[in-house]
Amino acid sequence: MEPPRLGDFEYLVLLAVFRVGQEAYGAVVRREIETHTGRRLGISAVYTTLERLEGKGLVRSWIGESTEIRDGRRRKYFELSPLGARALKEMHRTFAAMTAGVERRLRAL
Amino acid sequence: MSRVLLALIRRLTPELEREWVVGDTLEEFRHRQQIRGRMPARWWLFQECLRVLAAAPAHRRAVRTGAGDPRTSRLRRCSEALAQDARYFVRRSFQARAFTLTAVAVIALGIAANVAVFSVADAVLFRAAAFPNPDRVVAFETQSPAGLDLGASPVMYEHWRAQTSVVEDVTAFRNVVVNETSGATPDQLRGALVSASYFRLFGANVARGRTFTEEEDRPGGAQVAVISHHTWTRAFGGTDIAGRALRLNGVAYVVIGVLDPAFRMDDIGSEPDVWLPLQLDAGSKTQGHFLWVCGRLRDGVTLAQARARLAVSANQFRTGFPDSLGDTATFTAQPVREAVVRNARPLFLALLGAVGFVLLIACSNIAALLSLQGAVRAREMAVRAALGAGRWRIARQLLTESLLLSVLGGAVGFALGVLSMRLLPIIGISGEPRLDDLASAGPNWRLIAFTGAVSIVTAIVAGVAPAVRGSRGDLNAAMTSADGRSTQGPRRRRTESGLVALQVALAVVLLVGCGLFMRTVSALTRVNPGFNPDHVVTMRVSLAGAPSATTTATDAVVRRGVEALRAVPDVTTAAAAYGLPLQGGGGLPYEIVGRPLPPGQRFHGGGSWLTVSAGYFGALQISIERGREFTEADRGATVPVAIINDVMARREWPHQNPVGQRLVLGHGIGPQFQDEPVREIVGVVASIRDNSLDAPPGAEVYEPIAQLPDVANRFLAVGGQMAWIARTRSAPRGVAPALQDALRQAAGLPVSNVLPLDEIVARSLFRQRFVMWLMAAFGGAALLLASIGLYGLMAYAVEQRVREIGIRLALGAESSRIARTVVWQGLRLTLVGTIAGLLAALVAARAIARLLFGVASSDPLTLGAVVVVVGSVAALAVWLPARRASRVDPIVALRCE
User: Fold this and answer.
1) Residue B624 backbone dihedrals phi, psi, to 5 degrees
2) Under an 8 A CB cutoff, do B55 and A42 touch?
3) Which of A21, B520, B720, B833 has the least CB density, counted as fewest CB within 10 Å?
């Protein structure tokens, strides 16, 4: 199965899930993107995208146990599915191929 | 401020996502509060709120359309939520193993009992008929104040056949036994004498050849036979039947047809091997009720219309035959299968009712368990509700859980129920043909559908109330309770207490039923049947055909047989009779010679008609009260004699010695009794139970076989088989083969139904024993369930009060006093339940009064025994939690905060 094409925000969220590795839930995914891109994100936007990625079969989710710090609320965790991993890899290869050899010019822009 | 913002975010977020979205926001907020300080965190929350507001429509859309995938339907989201509930259920079940196991066991028990009874009822009452349009095929009956009678005389058959405006294909038939002597060893076959329309009525397809023509069905018609597929393969190896014949009762019958193997008649009596033309004389005036008559309702005629027509026609019939239809009797018709299972119906309805009680107990047990669980989980539910889970969402989760429990319990119960059916033969419940089938036949789709339906009903009955209550969780109460459990004590526990008392009450009702049936069986086994069934072997031989052509011929066979039996070592006495005790037989009206008849009457009375050989009373040890028994000297040439029983003697000659009086039997009710001579009464014997142990004996008249008129002898030989009895010194089972051989050689005819007489007595109690066993199983299950319910409630109550008990103990309360309080609480519930149960049982027992024998439906011994049993089991169920309460360690109890 061909991985579906990704929008740029989807790509970001997918990368964030990948970066966090295990225990990726909404708050840390957002923090990951905010830290590295400096963008300010609403949590709803993160979840909207995560749900969409899950609908496309790129991530999987499960509900965790209730936690003290959140007054007993449970977390919804996400991880890359094999399809998601392939999509990420392909996306990265595309960008890497397109930027190969022009890194210095890009930085100079 | 931040609380308002959080609430706003919560409102803006789609319900499905609220828990983690709000959780993430809270987590981030606290994180920022910690590292950046309060105000920046609040500022962030305000901005976050705006961002969520901006993204809300998109988020809502994404969730509604299933995360952006337009193909995701509402159904899929629903099923995903269900799957989520189910996953949650599985995880929780592992955490609360004890609860899950108890609940599944309780449901399984309730459903197993229902599966068992339903499969029996299904086999006996509801199984599909093997013939087409079973609802249109009716059996004709005579209805009188005494009940419905399926037996019909040839005159009635002719009369019903003439009602062509409402019925067609009217058919008469009777089951007989025939001796097949074609092969080297004679064999008995089950035969049916049927009129030509039989095969059309019951939709029998022929595999080969044809069925009877109308000509072949007339008196003196050809000797032809139609055989079953089984007989065809057995006797002819499935080869061509052209020119083949069977020797039946010494006469060659040309085989003209083989029926399709799919044709089965075991719905209405035994399955015949061979069908012979009835060849009934249309002009016959015979009044014996030895036929069954069935017919099909004409197209467009309803059962009610047919019945109305038959009722009117009964009046015409009465004018033609005033003696054979009383003024209070009339004709009616029933769908044939209903007529056949009629006797079993009240019994099975009672059983289905009883087993429904078991399920009700299981349901209320589960409801109580779920409700207690609900109390334990009140905090969890309250948190969920606070986090935005709607009431419907929570109720759905709880309902899903009870549904899954029920389905699990249903599956286990189904397996248990099917297995328990295999146990039937082991506990000695056999002999009813359909039940024997049942033990070997597997479950069918009706049973599976039934189990599924019962499981779902269980889930709904048991789960709805706890689900509704659980979804109403009170956040404040649940959160502020110190130990995280619900504090809504009194009201909640009143419900569970009520449920437990209900269970006790239902168990009491079932146990009373069980006790009454035990008393019935015990009373029946203590009934003196009037004869001694121990050490007696019985055998059957059909004398139809040449051996019964004349009474002299029959008498010769009887004497040969009896002598051969007596010659077997170990045999003390032997005799023969048309029919055995407890197996029923014919009745005949009698007229007493020299006594004027009451006006308008043609007979003085009626009684059972038993024809026996010399030595019969000695062999069965029936006591002779006056006069003598039949001897070898009572033969055709000597004075015709009869023996009556004490009931008849008291009825007809209350102040006189009946010996020496004379009577005549059955005159005027048909040609077979036209030759009956006037008989002199030579003896009076003790009454025997000739139909069943629970029917008090009526008048009984005995005649010697050797003095039967030829035509009456032939009539008896066609309708029934000669029974032989031999009293042995050692165990009858061991001698039986030798006896069977001796009789076969002496009579030259096949010998069948070799049975000890005590087994015939035991089999006559089959139904009562069967009910007793089932009721015992249900009563036991009900008691077990109720005690689990009681134990669960008391254990929970103790668990809830551990702190309080600890404080009391610390303050110096005696532990025995605390135990007493717990015991008293439990026993009070038991007491309430028992009293309610006893009252209900008194009402319910009246409904089954007809099935009882020798015991009043309000039998004090039974009621007392039930109270004792329930009381002691309840005491045990209460004692365990009470002991736990008395052993609470104050230190531990107070520390476990």
Assistant:
1) -90, 120
2) yes
3) A21
